[in-house]
Amino acid sequence: MGLLTILALLGGLVLLVSGGETLVRGGSGLGRTLGLSPLVIGLTVVALATSAPELAVSVDASLRGSPGVAVGNVVGSNITNVLLVLGVAALVLPVAVGRTLVRVDAPVMLALSALFWLLVLDGTVGRWDGVLLVVLVLVYLGWSVRVARRAPAEGVEQSAGDAAEEPARGPAVDALLVAVGVAMLVVGARLLVGAATELATAWGLSDLVIGLTVVAIGTSLPEVATSVVAALKGQPDLAIGNVVGSCTMNLGLVMGTTAVVAPADGVPVEASAVNFDVPFMVATALALLLVSATQRLVTRREGAVLVAYYVAYVAYLLLASADHDALGAFSTVMLGFVVPLTVVAALVSLRRSGTAAGRPTDRAGT
Q: Which residues form the domain of 137?
């Protein structure tokens, strides 16, 4: 059983990386065909595709009577997307941020995160709450595509370099690549999540902690693979658009659909998630907006900070799950020193970027 579990983990990783590259190729090709920018493709086609594992896992968990996994998967995936996925992508290559993402897409994600927090304050995501979330994300998707089609010139200019590097393909071939990439991502995620969950259960972790960590990391690996590949291929808009779009899809489409199809009247949410994990998710959404607004560039240093916070978050969950004696000291250091220092640094950087905004040069380039 141990060997089979290891093989499943390795096989899942291979499928996720290969599927991420296939999806980027197909999604970029469709974007050029439709005249959409890489950012919009990342926010829509790629985000929907890479959210497929979260949708499959959360719906399956809810129907099987494991609401902790369903909620933890969504909340944990959003935290993982911002801190780990964007952080790793920025470490690979600094990520330039477009004006539209800072002014529209990231604020939409933050607003949806805050709305989700309000909806779960009563301890459940009701069926009508789910309907509201699905409707809101569909309206947002429709608006994004409509605006992009009205002004396609910017997207064509951004993707011209990539188009010159790859041979021309027809839209049918690009659509097939997207479908194959999605299939590889879903199968890879299921293999990895199944094996990782088996290991975590053997270690005595709760459903919520498994959802927030093991399952969230597993289902977010498509975003990691896709964003890193996009960064390496010189498509930073696709990389960060995938992160923001996936977070939006997770809250609206994944959590909303899960609540609608849940056998009971919605999905119950544990008090620990309401009091800590969901507010932390909202804080990470705010952090993404602040980091994106600082000179419209996510630097390697900022990427390292994001990854460090993710490691600290997982460490906190594991210490809390084990009721470890070191939890108190760990929380004191994080809340009393590290977090305030990071907030001050972010505000200073934001102020400097606001001063630099009036200068002729613009590092984001869009």
A: 39-150+203-356
Categorize the per-residue pLDDT at 107 as very low, low, confident or very high, splitting at 50, 70 and 90.
Answer: very high
Nearest to 223 by CA among 205, 201, 248: 248
Q: Based on the structure, what is the number of domains in the chain?
A: 1
Q: What is the DSSP letter of 290?
A: H
Which residue is it, tokens 């064509």?
Answer: 156
CB atoms within 10 A of CB 192: 26
Residue type, 354: G
Whether residue 216 contacts residue 73, with contact meaning beta carbons closer than 8 Å, is answered with: yes
47-105 pLDDT, tens per residue?
777 677 777 778 877 877 778 888 988 999 899 999 998 888 888 888 888 787 888 88
Place of tokens 């099987």: 64
User: What residues have CB less than 8 Å from 363, skipping those under 6 apart?
Assistant: 96, 295, 296, 297
Determine, yes or no, domain membership for 61. Answer: yes
